[in-house]
Amino acid sequence: MKKLSILTFTGVCIVSLSGCVDMSKVVNTPTNPIVTEYNGDSVKIQVHGNEAYNRRPVEIDTALANTTCKKGGKKAEYASSKASVAYFRNEHFFLCVDS
What does DSSP assign to residue 55? Predict the structure, then answer.
C-alpha cells in the first residue's frame, strides 16, 4: 500500500510539472502580422508588440495593409497605432485611400 502511494505521488508530480511552460518563450515569440478588421475604407493590422510598444509599422505590416486595401482598388496610408500591453500586441490602423 505504501509503495502504491509513493508511485501515485511520483506520477502526480511528473504530470503536474509537465504542464509548466516557460512563458518568456511564449511571450517573446514574434508572429506574422494579421488583418483583424477590414471594411474597404480602413484596415487594422495586429502585430506582436513585445519589442517596443507604440512603434510605427514596419515594412511587412505596411505591405499587408497595402495588399488588403488593393482588394478595393486603393492603397494603404498609415494613420495610428495602439498598444495592448497586457497581451503584448500592437494594432496599426491604416486608411484605404484612392491610388
Answer: P
E-only strand ranges, 54-88: 74-84
Determine which helix (DSSP H) or strand (DSSP E) holds 54, and give its type and residue range. Answer: none
The span from the CA of 38 to the CA of 55, in Å, is: 21
Rounded to the nearest 5 percent, the helix, strand and coil shares of the chain are: 35, 35, 30
For the four alpha carbons of 36, 42, 47 and 51, in that order, the dihedral sign comes to negative
pLDDT digits (tens, 9 = 90+) for 53-94: 557 888 999 999 999 999 999 999 999 998 877 778 889 999
Q: Where are the domains of the chain?
A: 23-98
Q: Cα-flanking dihedrals φ and ψ of residue 51, to 5°?
A: -70, -45
Please give the model's pTM, rounded to 2 decimal places: 0.66
